[in-house]
Amino acid sequence: MVIAHVRVWAPMDSEVVKIAITLVNNVASPLFALVMGISAGIVLTRRDAPVRGWVFLARNLVRGLLLVAIGLGLQELETFVAIVLMSLGATLVVAAPFALLPVRVLGAVTVLVFAVGPPVNAAARAAFAPERVYSPALVDQVLQWFVLSTHYRVVSLLPFVLAGVVLARLRLTARVAAGTLAVGLVAGLAVVALRVSGRGLGVSEVVSGDVPDALLDVALAGCACGAVILLARWSPAQPLVTALAPVRAVGALALTAYALHVGLIALVQRTTAPMTPYESWPLYAGGVLAVTVLACWAWWQLLGKGPLERAMGLVTDRIG
């Protein structure tokens, strides 16, 4: 997601670059939601003090509200970043009761939620006045988090959070990872088929949250998640996994990394001329990325949990 944001400063002259940037940009939010669901599922299934029932619901309610609060704070920085935390927080609250369902039922609910997402998004766009998509009024902001945003919506993120819970409850085995990769590849074929038929990406109008966009999210998130799990479980790849420790640190401190890089972008916007980051994009985009990764790695190595993760834990772990 850091790359998806700092890429705004990079030139988009090459078609290859445009495709690469589009893929990186599209994979960020669904993969974020998928990993959040995996984290919730691990809490449900871990052998050491699993959290279930009303305690699980209450903790995720508070965690979701804290994500919304942090997101609203980051939004006040007025960067070009479309803050995802409000939609993610609301999604976590909605997803928590479903996460307690039997895993087979939860799997069916996940498929159903994914299937109804595009028509719900389309119905919401038709039902509400277009100006409400950007309105700062609180009721309109809540509508944006759930259905109206042009970037992130509960309706679109919910199936990924639920899918993450399913994967974690199935123990993230190599077989589960291979199945996740297969689902991603099938969704990718569907994206290609839509394009060939003249209804998909690059050949017709595609709106965030419609069928081609949703299928692309599944393709990218499924392939990325499945491939990473398989790689992590493949013994010959252990030196590579070890070498990627800085990247793993960003994953371990995901919330802190998110807030840090948004803060760095805000700092750049406030301390430079408007066009400077575009004219010197390797310095500024690369700098924000490098500082975020290295800071998270150093913190992870020296202190473990990130400051925001630790603060959130102090609040939610007291429940129950």
Main sheet attributes: strand count, strand direction, barrel closure: none
Task: Classify the secondary structure makeup into a structural class.
Answer: mainly alpha
Oligomer: single chain
**Alpha-carbon distance between the two ends:** 33 Å
Please mark out the parts with pLDDT under 50 across 5 or more consecutive residues, or reply none: none
* N-to-C SSE string, H for helix and E for strand: HHHHHHHHHHHHHHH
Q: Kindly state the number of beta strands.
A: 0
Give the C-alpha Rg: 19 Å
The number of helices is 15
Q: What is the residue-mean pLDDT, rounded to a whole number?
A: 94
Helix fraction?
over 70%
Q: Kindly estimate the percentage of residues that lie in beta strands according to DSSP.
A: under 5%
- Shape category: globular
Secondary structure layout plus pairing:
Layout: H1 2-6, H2 15-45, H3 53-75, H4 85-99, H5 103-127, H6 138-148, H7 154-169, H8 174-196, H9 211-233, H10 238-243, H11 245-252, H12 254-271, H13 276-279, H14 281-303, H15 307-316
Structure report:
With 320 residues, the chain is an all-alpha fold. Helix content is 75%, strand content 0%. Helix 4 packs across helix 7 and helix 5 runs antiparallel to helix 7 (154-169). The longest helix has 31 residues, at 15-45.
Give a quick set of tags describing it.
single chain, mainly alpha, 75% helix, globular
Describe the structure concisely.
75% of the residues lie in helices and 0% in strands. The chain has helices at residues 2-6, 15-45, 53-75, 85-99, 103-127, 138-148, 154-169, 174-196, 211-233, 238-243, 245-252, 254-271, 276-279, 281-303, 307-316.
